């Protein structure tokens, strides 16, 4: 998934928690919780939503890394890139 698609998905996930979110008003480098005034439960629901949509584990210890939209995108892109290894090719011998 490219960064633009990932950004769209993240913003859509934010809108599920805070429908008033306007993409054009978000600054990628500002703290997300301040930008859209999310309380701790909203933030947790946002993180859980990302996990469910992307099937990416986000340990609680990593929550502090997810400060800005850029940080969320960087984190998710790295986690998606480091996904589970693919299965080895099947043997061609009978």
Write the layout of secondary structure elements.
Elements: H1 3-17, H2 32-35, H3 40-54, H4 69-81
Question: Summarize this, please?
Answer:
This protein has 94 residues and is mainly α.
Give a structural overview.
Pfam families: PP-binding. This is Acyl carrier protein. The chain has a single domain, classed as Non-ribosomal Peptide Synthetase Peptidyl Carrier Protein, Chain A (Orthogonal Bundle). It is 50% helix and 0% strand. It has four helices and no strands. The chain is globular.
Beta content comes to under 5%
The CATH architecture classification is: Orthogonal Bundle
Poorly predicted segments: 84-90
Taken together, the total number of domains comes to: 1
Report the CATH superfamily: ACP-like
Outline type: globular
By secondary-structure content and strand pairing, the structural class works out as: mainly alpha
Number of strands: 0
Please identify the top-level CATH class.
Answer: Mainly Alpha
Distance between the termini: 37 Å
Report the order of strands and helices.
HHHH
On the 0 to 100 scale, the average pLDDT is 87
């Amino acid at each position: 998934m490219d960064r633009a698609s990932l950004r769209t998905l993240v913003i859509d996930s934010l809108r599920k928690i805070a429908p008033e979110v306007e993409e054009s008003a978000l600054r990628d480098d500002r703290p997300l919780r301040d930008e859209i005034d999310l309380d701790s439960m909203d933030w947790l629901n946002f993180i859980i939503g990302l996990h469910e949509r992307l099937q990416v584990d986000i340990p609680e210890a990593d929550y502090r890394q997810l400060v800005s939209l850029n940080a969320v995108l960087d984190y998710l892109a790295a986690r998606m890139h480091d996904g589970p290894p693919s299965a080895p090719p099947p043997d061609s011998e009978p």
